[in-house]
Amino acid sequence: MMKFKSKRFGIRFGFGKRTNNKGTKQDQQQKGFGNNNNNGSSSNYEIKWELRPGGMLVQKRQESIGEDLISIRVSTFAHFHDLSIEATSTFGELKMVLALLTGLEPKQQRLLFKGKEREDDEYLHMVGVGEKDKVLLLEDPAFKEKKLLNNISTSCPTIIV
């Protein structure tokens, strides 16, 4: 058995003041409708268009400077670093920045976000890293073990008599 929903046509639900479809002259100019000349002066707002590779004509986006920077907290067990980086950066680029701060080579670093180790070619924004998110930095256990073995072997030199 099928159930049908009834639809009402011609009724609009709006909030605030009801106006006619055209609105005021000032509203039309802000939206880009009608004559943009107002006693000889023109509106500052102009729509710019771009042609996409598929042939679609779309309105060009407003490019704002610094909007794509996100601040993240990278923490180790003992320390944490607050840094700002572009949202479209990769985890490999983040490792290079952290190499300058921590002294660990990018090969020695392991970055964890949301409980998973992230690869160097993964993008921050695609994984979901946002403003004020926390990324965990761990030293690779293989490099840590190698460093300990080198410290043990160099700290106790063999004495031949």
Automatic annotation (TrEMBL):
Residue stretches making up the Ubiquitin-like domain: 70-138
InterPro entries xrefs: Ubiquitin-like_dom, Ubiquitin-like_domsf
Residue spans of biased composition, Polar residues class: 21-33
Chain intervals for the UniProt region annotation (Disordered): 1-45
UniProt-listed SMART domains: UBQ (SM00213)
Amino acid composition bias (Low complexity), ranges on this chain: 34-44
Composition bias type Basic residues, residue spans: 1-10
Pfam families for the chain: ubiquitin
Coiled coil: none
Family annotation (SUPFAM superfamilies): Ubiquitin-like
Superkingdom of origin organism: Eukaryota
UniProt-listed PANTHER family: OS02G0597700 PROTEIN
Identification of the protein by name: Ubiquitin-like domain-containing protein
Species name: Brassica carinata (Ethiopian mustard)
